[in-house]
Amino acid sequence: MHSPARVVLPKSEKNRKKILDANPKLNAAVTGKQLVPVGAEDIGVEAVDDYTLRISFSVPAPYFINMMPHQFFRALHQKTIEKFGSAWTDAGNIVTSGAFKLESWKHYDRIVVARDPMNWDARNVKLDRVVFYLLTENATMMSLYKAGELDATYNHTVPSAWLDVIGPLKDFMDAPEAAIDYYNFNTSKGPTADVRVRKAMNMSLDKKALANWRHVKALTAMTPDGIFPGYPQPKGDPFDPEKAKRLLAEAGYRDASGNFDPKKFEASEVELIVNPDANNLPYAEFIQAQWKQNLGVTISIRVMEAKTLSKTMSALEYKGVARTGYAADYMDPYTFLSIFGSTGGANNTGWLDPKYVALLEEANRAVDHQKRYQLLAQAEQLLLDAQPVIPLTVGTTRSLKKPYLKGFYPNPAMLHPWKYAFIERDSSKWDYGMPEMGN
Amino acid sequence: MLRFIIRRVIVIIPMLLIVVSLTWTLVRLAPGSFYTGEKKLAPAVEKNLREKYGLDKPWYVQYGKVLKNIARFDFGNSLKYEGQSVNQILLRALPVSATLGITAYLIALLVGITMGALAALKPNSWLDYASMTLAMLGISIPNFVLGPLLVLLFSLTLFWFPPALWNGFPSKSLVLPALTLSAIYIAYIARLTRSGMLEVMRSDYIRTARAKGLSETQVVTRHALRGGLLPVVSFSGPALAFLITGTVVVERIFALPGLGNYFINACFNRDEPLIIGIVAFIAISVLVFNLLVDISYAFIDPRIRY
Amino acid sequence: MSTENGNLLSVRDLCVVFKTEDGTVKAVDGISFEVKRGETLGIVGESGSGKTVANLSLLRLIPEPPGKIESGFIEFGGRDLLKLSQTEIRGLRGKRIAMIFQDPMTSLNPFMRVSKQLMEVTQLHLGHTKQQARAHAIKMLEQVGIPDAHERVDSYPHEFSGGMRQRVMIAMALSCQPELLIADEPTTALDVTIQAQILELIKHLKSETGASVILITHDLGVVAGMTDRVVVMYAGKLFEEAPTRELFERTANPYTKGLLRSVPDPTSEHETLYQIPGQPPDLAHLPPGCPFAPRCERAEEICRREFPPFVELTMSHRSLCHFANEIYAETKSAA
Ligand SMILES: Nc1ncnc2c1ncn2[C@@H]1O[C@H](COP(=O)(O)OP(=O)(O)OP(=O)(O)O)[C@@H](O)[C@H]1O
Ligand SMILES: [Mg+2]
Which residues does chain B have with pLDDT short of 70? Predict the structure, then answer.
């Protein structure tokens, strides 16, 4: 995910222009952004008074309110940014409005935040200081946790291979996340240009088995199941190897008697590319084995370093299938469905259906919530029918927390409300297992 | 001597040029760039970015800029850490790597020379076999295996030292990374000391020293060590190179904010100025260090004159 | 007892073995000899005959392992050196018994100034302070004929020529006025004119200090000019012992005879030099009988079968040979 350095636009057009001119990156990012169309004369954002911000829309965009927690919409101190330029985020420079303020930031080491006495609610902030260690290796984090150097870990710290041991522990925090793992199909060339092949490859995967094996939830549609209350989520095709074979036979890979013949399938024209990070490789091997077992087709796996993979994917240079994933920017199905609303961004499949785009637009014009959800669900069904992707799994938090750390709950985006967290000295009040919200 | 030093310093310039050019080419050959992410950028965004960072200019203009930067020893700004100059980052990361590296090397000298000398004084004794077995292990166990093993033993079982993190010097958190990093040097130095000492102990002038009536300790400390440790001194040059590759891994395992960690991430991020800055810095250090080793020869061995 | 009969050193039945991959090698096999006070004893023998090993044993400087002094007595100043503690023997080394070695190029520590190497000895044994030791070092260098000694004393060994280095070695060895100086082929590595100078120097210093000298050499010419008595060694054994003059005139051993014949005679018309046929024996696989038998012109059946007896020809002349008496008689008639 690439986010522009910041979206801070002053009220006056003159100042705005000055900032945009000074920062071509920001300028370009704003220009390219579709969610909040920016006109030269009116960006639709104004400060009504010292405490009120008004944002006007040309479309209803009912999901917008869910976007507000995103870091794009943090209130910032304009003078600081003007004064320090790109160094405005350094400790000592940055001005924030939260319960904690930045004390120090050492790259690859730690970020220390301390209670801000100037905060309106400082009296109710319980922790004096929070230290975030900037660690990249999960194993390191697990060791530190075990050695008692950490009170809690980030999401996704527990490696899958350890789940059997860690899973039953009282410290283990596992809750679904608004993040999905899926594979892209290259719909622009090769066997995967044929929707029947795509559907067959999807249907021949036993996602439940994958999910059970990796202790995650299977992803059956393009949106995670059950995190958007009231959303009439459609379901993708179920696991059905026989139907998959029939579809492949229809697509032309058949012998004289009309049955599917794996030898006819151009397996050399399809490969699965993955970056070797996290659990991608074991996933890929599992899926490769499923295809082999259920279709008799061997798809080779190619490992590619992340940036190379991104580049190959966005240029649609890959053959067949490529691994990717997406984390929600805000809590609305649209965050996932919008991926395929254009060919830019994260849509690296080559698939674009005007009907789908029209449905999304219509949904976003709908003010009635339920109506909007129905339209989005129609769009999602259309997407699933066209199968430009193989949905795989829904992310889970998989983090750890010491029993004495209270007021701290599994959180999909690690946006923990730190001001409520505290250390409980009385061991009778400790959390054993996942804490119930609202305690 | 002065002429020798000047000559060697001049040689550094073309070497540096080659190293930097190769690095620059490799960075350019690697697919993707610092702004490549999972989401494709709008063409207008990409164009603007390329213009801002001068990536739209012909390659020789960009290359020229790199060379000019190096000539002024100012590598420009990092692409990833906006607003931070590469020099700032180097200054911040170097003390970490240097502390780790020097501590590791001092441990290695102390332990390695002791082990090697003991082995040499009693060749084929159990002491000799024990130290050489240890040395063999040190050479054959890669540090990405040794590190976690030490962590498992000393942090997660005995709870003596923290398993990661940087708390400056001196601190308990330095112990495990320094040990991990030093293992291979301990091994090399022990072996070099042993063979160097064995050779010296057989030499005629040691027999002369003994014939004078000196005690064995005097023979070793006054007469044998100096010649016996010459191989260790010449090893110190390449050791720095080893050290730098070693810190990359060890800093990663123990999550230390040193050059190695920055370097790995600079590569993943395609942060060209930072990559080139770190590579150039390392190249210069290696070359300068080798020069220092050569100069130190002249002080250790009076027969050598430049 | 030893002092009574004027012996400074008396070696009895010395055996030194080395454990090698080939098996155990008797590098020195039961040799006995004496050195009288003020006397110069020559030890000659082909390469590998055990001369160096025998003399290193006197200072207990045999590298252990692989070497080992298996048996024998080494009586020096009334005490058995083989029974001394490490500290006691170290107190003797460099003080009462000093040694100079074959190769002056490698026998000095290349990393240490000559001054320091010289001062070390007297600081150790004579308790000299730094200043005293330094003054003494300069004096010693002057004595061995090093010009500008007070300037050159701080040089490193590589700044001296080979001959000069051997002079430094001699200065070092004589620093504490030892009673016995062992010179192991002190001139082999030097060119001829320098050889003569060094030998002359040893002779001169000996006469000044009255020390006894053991001079090890291949060169019978050197033996003739320098020594009072000679010991001939072969394959770790003492083959003949005699006063120098007698040995040259009336040897009683075929091996010595061969050695004597191989000395170039400047007056001789013959161009080709005599050489003892064959090679020195492999000490790990000695033949039964006399070890020299396979190369001996006189060897008979008995020589190959039985180890020869030590024949005392006179009070001071002994030879290891089945036919010692016969040869002794022949050489007399020849002389
Ligand atoms: N360190 C050693 N290890 C094994 N064997 C040894 C060692 N030193 C000496 N020897 C054995 O002792 C024998 C005698 O050696 P030594 O050096 O005494 O001969 P040398 O008479 O001094 O000969 P040269 O005239 O060449 O100096 C050698 O042939 C060798 O077999
Ligand atoms: Mg010898």
Answer: 37-40
Distance CA C105, CA C163 (A): 9
Read off the pLDDT of each residue in A119-123 and give the average, rounded to a whole number: 90
CA atoms within 13 A on the CB side of B231: 20
Cα separation, C220 vs B243, whole angstroms: 60
Taking Cα atoms as reference points, which of A367, A418, A433 lies closest to residue A115? A418
Q: What is the pLDDT of residue C266?
A: 66
Query: Which of A90, A140, A280 is the best substitution to test chain B (most B C-beta atoms within 10 A)?
Result: A140
Structure letter (DSSP) for residue A330: S
Q: C183 C-alpha to center of ligand 2: Å? A: 10
- Residue A29 belongs to what domain range? 1-58
Are C294 and C278 contacting, i.e. CB atoms less than 8 angstroms apart? yes
The token pair at A283 is: 């996933």
At B123, the amino acid letter reads: P
Alpha-carbon distance of C86 to B219, in angstroms, equals 14
Cα torsion angle, A346, A350, A351, A356, sign: positive
A239 within some domain: yes
* CB-CB contact of B107 with B178 (8 Å): yes
Are A29 and A120 in a shared domain?
Answer: no
Are B177 and B169 contacting, i.e. CB atoms less than 8 angstroms apart? no
Tell me if A344 and B41 make a contact (CB, 8 A cut-off). Answer: yes
* Nearest-angstrom CA–CA distance, A428 and A32: 54
For residues B94 and B88, what is the distance between their CA atoms, to the nearest angstrom? 10
The answer to whether B208 contacts chain C (CB < 8 Å) is yes
Q: Are strands C212-217 and C180-184 parallel, antiparallel or unpaired?
A: parallel
- What is the value of pTM for the model shown? 0.73
**Same domain, yes or no: A200 and A317:** yes
| A434 within some domain | no
Is A180 in the same domain as A327?
Answer: yes
Pocket test for ligand 1, best of C52, C62, C99 (most atoms within 8 A of CB): C52
| Residue A273 and residue A199 in one domain | yes
Same domain for A105 and A245? no
* Cα A109-A114-A115 angle, rounded to 5 deg: 160
Domain-embedded: residue A439: no
State the ipTM, two decimals: 0.85
Same domain, A268 and A320: yes
A343-390: pLDDT as tens digits:
877 899 999 999 999 999 999 888 888 999 999 999 999 999 999 999
Here the CATH number for the domain that contains residue A149 is: 3.40.190.10
Number of folded domains that form chain A: 3
The CA angle B37-B41-B44, to the nearest 5 degrees, is: 150
Q: Which of C266, C219, C238, C234 is nearest to C72 (CA)?
A: C238
Give the mean model confidence (pLDDT) for residues C240-267. 84
Q: What is the DSSP letter of C314?
A: E
CB of C21 closer than 6 A to ligand 1? no
Separation CA B205–CA C110 (nearest Å): 8
Residue A182 has which token pair?
């899926």
User: Is A331 in the same domain as A266?
Assistant: yes
Please tell me whether residues A93 and A124 are part of one structural domain: yes
CATH of residue A202: 3.10.105.10
3-class secondary structure, C5: coil
What is the whole-number distance in angstroms between the Cα of residue C60 and the centre of ligand 1? 15
Would residue A97 count as lying in a domain? yes
Question: In the structure, what pLDDT confidence band is assigned to residue A438 with cuts at 50, 70 and 90?
Answer: very low
Question: C110 and B205: CB-CB below 8 Å?
Answer: yes
Residues of B in contact with C120 (CB under 8 A): 212, 214, 222
Q: Which long-range contacts (CB under 8 A, 24 or more apart) does A1-5 make?
A: A1/A327, A1/B37, A1/B38, A1/B39, A2/B35, A2/B37, A2/B38, A2/B39, A2/B41, A3/A29, A3/A71, A3/A72, A4/A29, A4/A30, A5/A29, A5/A86, A5/B82
